[in-house]
Amino acid sequence: MRARHLATAAALALTTALLAATPAPAQPSATTPPSGSRPAPARPAGHTEVPVEGGSARFATPPALLAALKARGVALADVDRRGTVTPHHDSGGISLAIKGGAVTNSGGKAGGELRLADAGIALVNRTAKKTVKVTGFTVDLGQGTLRARLNRGPSMTVGTFTRPAIASAIDTHAAALRMDTGITVTAAAAAKLNAALGTTGFTGGGPLLHARIDAALDRSVDLATALNLGHRPASTDAGRRSAGLAGGGVPWEW
């Protein structure tokens, strides 16, 4: 009997020793992602979206287009966010508020989007008694396009422009994106405008608008870091502001 007890005790001791020698399963650490999960991609330097907090976009009709439209009996008017058309009296063009958007550094060029107020421009053919309301403007900085709705229809690309270099477009001291550029009409938009107005005043690839944009950016953001602007002398922004962004002296008239 004593021998049997001794054998049992020896077997239990051997089992305990084997269990102690077996390593425990590894537990995932707090910093190790679960098996099968994908790590979040790192955001490249300079690709931060900087929120747009306001500002304005001022549009003027180039003189050549203005003359061509007047010769065909087409006049320009204002249209408010409710769709009401009123005569246009401001010789300096039409100014629309910027209500939102974001700016990024897209390959060294300005990227992002600017969303403008719901008001816009109306074109009135008094002879044919036809009107086109152009509203819902969106400036796609990344694509270099201006989108809008014609007579409350779906948004479409109405014009294109040359994308500015991000370093020259950003005023870090004023926390603003500034643009002074010409916009050419797309062939599709020219065809729609001509058909809706019963005229031939628009030609694809021809001038559509001249735009001066001053978008206020989030002042809490370090723009030089967020937009990967690098080291820039303080005189760079000040010099551009003093130049007044003349843009070649394009007349601002309707």
Describe the structure in your own words.
The protein is of the alpha+beta class and 254 residues long. The protein has 6 helices and 12 strands. Strands 1-4-5-7-8-9-11-12 form an 8-stranded antiparallel beta barrel. A hairpin with a 4-residue loop joins strand 10 and strand 11. The longest helix is centred in the N-terminal third of the chain and has 20 residues, at 2-21. It is elongated and about 55 Å long.
Number of helices: 6
Apparent shape: elongated
Structural class: alpha+beta
Helix content: 10-25%
Q: How much beta, percentage-wise?
A: 35-45%
Strand order of the largest sheet: 1-4-5-7-8-9-11-12
Could you name the key traits of this structure?
254 residues; alpha+beta; eight-stranded antiparallel beta barrel; 6 helices; 12 strands; disordered N terminus; disordered C terminus
In short:
The chain has 254 residues and is of the alpha+beta class. 23% of the residues lie in helices and 37% in strands.
Fold topology:
Elements: H1 2-21, E1 50-60, H2 63-71, E2 74-79, E3 85-87, E4 94-106, E5 109-116, E6 120-125, E7 130-140, E8 145-150, E9 155-160, H3 166-169, E10 170-171, E11 176-185, H4 187-197, E12 207-217, H5 223-226, H6 234-243
Antiparallel strand pairs: 1-4, 1-12, 2-3, 2-6, 4-5, 5-7, 6-7, 7-8, 8-9, 9-11, 10-11, 11-12
